[in-house]
């Protein structure tokens, strides 16, 4: 779809711009307004995550009829269960070279990268996409923060590779006017409500300082329009069920026959009683037809379809089958969600590598002396991004005894680092664990030498005693 100016919107709402053109105020205004239009869907999804559903907007029932508005927050449940499974365990991110790995972990700790990955995963499930924005703080240290697609976007070039050209962040001030910045490879340019570009500043990173993270190729959230219709139907059905329950409690008693004066009839009316004079006597409650069975069937089907279409495991199904289940049997029930998480993991790994490429170039990572000597001998220099190891671990009930047996059986078959990766419940960083093991071995060796009688010290003993 073409926009005003030279920009256009590609498939999956990707913003594109000619790679040999410069962004103008007209182009920028068109992109911002289009993002605002798309953001109406983003904001609706976030409102649902916060528990605000269409049932609240239903017209009121007439004649004081029961009017329950029950909203079950399935959106929050789906997002939290899936992302607790996907990123509830912090991913392991490391480099082989010790010196480079120390700098990497320092950046990760400074910017709380593992926590931000968890937050990014949640936002991607709500919006379909989100951004990691890199910047320098007051101390000139590189930091990372999250930017939501409701007020930011990346403009890619129109080539086959779709390389990022600009990152735009904006907000509205107290006067409800747009203000923001456009970031390119070389500069950062502010703009005002008229989308006039101001004086530029140099971009110290030398790259577009933002990376897009996505839920899937289509940038679809975990709950799309079809899923939302199911959630709204569930809320409507259960609200109607509550209305029927209230109607039963408020049912009128029909009283026929008997000697009734006007005062008695008046009091009966105040207490939901209908009385008429008749030759015979009878009393019963007036009830409308009960559709409880039909409502239950509808609710069960809707809930089942909700979890099937989102591919998120219904934990109630697991709990209903008892507590004596193995981790493997639980994993089988989570197979659909595992497949969904595998797709998301691949997208996140690609985005993380892009982010760390910018970070490493800015930090100018240098190898340890041992690594530098190896490069000299081999005549090659390894790209640290290619050496980066990123491992996501699914958050499932763990059998530590089983993990220990697997790790033990790998002895002598794989490297020590790979062997330690078989213990994700106990070892967060295999490389750090190997270093601790080396330290323990060194300390044990030193203690053994000191305590060995063969290492008797002759200090303070004269020459004759030594000969004896």
From TrEMBL:
Q: Report the superkingdom from the record.
A: Bacteria
Specify the protein name: Phage portal protein, SPP1 family
Residue segments, region Disordered: 437-468
């Amino acid at each position: 779809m073409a926009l005003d100016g030279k920009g256009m919107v590609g498939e999956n709402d990707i913003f594109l711009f000619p790679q040999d053109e410069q962004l103008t105020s007209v182009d920028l205004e068109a992109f911002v307004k289009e993002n605002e239009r798309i953001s109406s869907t983003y904001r609706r999804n976030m409102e649902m995550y916060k528990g605000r559903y269409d049932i609240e907007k239903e017209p009121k029932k007439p004649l004081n009829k029961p009017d329950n508005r029950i909203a079950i927050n399935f959106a929050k449940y789906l997002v939290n269960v899936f992302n607790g499974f996907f990123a509830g365990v912090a991913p392991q991110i490391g480099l082989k070279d010790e010196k480079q790995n120390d700098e990497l972990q320092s950046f990760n700790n400074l910017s709380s990268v593992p926590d931000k990955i968890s937050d990014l995963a949640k936002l991607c499930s709500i919006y379909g996409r989100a951004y990691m924005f890199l910047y320098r703080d007051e101390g000139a240290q590189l930091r990372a923060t999250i930017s939501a697609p409701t007020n930011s976007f990346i403009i890619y070039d129109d080539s086959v590779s779709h390389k990022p050209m600009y990152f735009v962040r904006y907000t509205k001030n107290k006067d409800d006017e747009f203000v923001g910045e456009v970031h390119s490879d070389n500069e950062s340019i502010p703009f005002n409500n008229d989308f006039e570009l101001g004086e530029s500043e140099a971009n110290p990173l030398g790259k577009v300082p933002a990376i897009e993270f996505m839920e899937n190729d289509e940038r679809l959230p975990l709950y799309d329009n079809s899923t939302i219709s199911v959630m709204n139907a569930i809320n409507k059905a259960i609200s109607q069920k509550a209305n029927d329950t209230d109607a039963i409690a408020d049912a009128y008693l029909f009283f026929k026959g008997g000697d009734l004066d006007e005062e008695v009839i008046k009091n009966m009316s105040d207490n939901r009683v209908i009385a008429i004079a008749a030759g015979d006597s009878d009393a019963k409650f007036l009830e409308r037809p009960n559709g409880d069975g039909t409502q239950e069937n509808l609710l069960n089907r809707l809930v089942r379809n909700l979890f099937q279409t989102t591919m998120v495991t219904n934990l109630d199904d697991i709990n209903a089958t008892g507590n004596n289940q193995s981790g493997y049997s639980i994993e089988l029930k989570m197979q659909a969600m595992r497949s969904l998480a595998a797709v998301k993991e691949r997208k996140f790994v690609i985005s993380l590598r892009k982010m760390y490429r910018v970070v490493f170039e800015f930090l100018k990572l240098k190898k340890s002396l041992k690594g530098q000597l190896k490069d000299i001998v081999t005549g090659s220099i390894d790209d640290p991004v290619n050496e980066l190891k990123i491992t996501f671990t699914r958050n499932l009930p763990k059998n530590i005894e089983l993990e220990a047996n697997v790790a033990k059986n790998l002895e002598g078959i794989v490297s020590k680092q790979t062997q330690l990766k078989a213990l994700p419940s106990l070892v967060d960083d295999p490389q750090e664990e190997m270093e601790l093991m080396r330290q323990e071995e060194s300390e044990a060796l030193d203690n053994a030498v000191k305590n060995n009688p063969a290492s008797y010290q002759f200090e303070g003993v004269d020459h004759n005693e030594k000969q004896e």
